[in-house]
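DM from R.C. (forwarded with permission)

"hey, sorry to bug you on a friday — could you get me a structure for this? deadline for the figure draft is monday and I only need the backbone to look sensible"
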Amino acid sequence: MSEKPKLAMYWGAACGGCEISVLNIHEHILTVDEIFDIAFFPCIADFKVHHVESYDDGYIDVCLFNGAIRNSENEEMAHLLRKKSKVLVAFGSCAYEGCIPALSNLTSKEATFNTVYGENASLDNPDGIVPLTEVDVAEGTLTLPEFYHTVKSLDQVVDVDYYLPGCPPESHQIWAVLQVVVAGLLEGAPLPPAGSVVGVTNVAVCEECDRVKNEKNIEKFYRPYQIIPDPEQCLLEQGIVCMGLATNGGCGALCPQVGMGCRGCYGPLPGVEDQGAKMLSAVASVIGAGEVGMEEAELEEKIQAVVDTIADPAGTFYRFSMAHSMLQRAKVNGSNGKGEA
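My reply, with the result:
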């Protein structure tokens, strides 16, 4: 049996971009192949769950687990890969913070099914049939994973050794992290402390952005298609929501460089418990509305008018962090889906 370290990658509730980002390390992928044996990577090779189940505990040296925990299969694989892996990495924003899948925490499982299988204009489903976990047919019983009411991040299900954020993580950061892990496995070099967020700079994206920043006094917010931004000026100062103030750097400010506000995919800065709340606080401090001496009711009305120009505040400020936020999910009809008020 080969003595090379074993590498695994699993795809939970995610879009597939994280797998592509691994291939995007370009010629370094050949070095990965030289250093590692692939123990599990269903996206690129024909692996089955029973292969993983047959491994000794700790057989896999490093597992890159991408995707949120949306259903029972995701959770079962999280427990299995945790058991079989020495190092488990929450790889990408979905595993790290829940990301786009966790925005469904703003509604319920039932409402999601109704939208997808009932009200969808492209469907012909007059009987309102929805997926079931078990269905008996002539050939036997067909099963599907249980679709959960609440989407969770990986560390809300199992212990995680490291977090590598990004939607997807940037290729140079992936390679840097793999180098650190390889050095630890093969050369005994010290690994980062358990629980570390790796591949980040620990300074705000704004620090990586070379746009000119002045005093912010925002009277209206715009969606990207509504304005052609000045290529030199800070986007937030122009009324384009940019999460760079509240987001950990490491991406090189790629989105602001091309006129798109930072969406927040690299997660919160160190010491920030709730990235969305941090950004809401920042936005509140730069709204320019009203005048000195104005009546409080009129001032509130003008401030609200500015706030109302932010499209989908929850989806904007918690696009990547809903599952990891203090909110975690919205209460629906007075319940959080666990039988609790």
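R.C.: lifesaver. The chain has twelve helices and ten strands.
me: no worries. Residues 108-149 form one domain.
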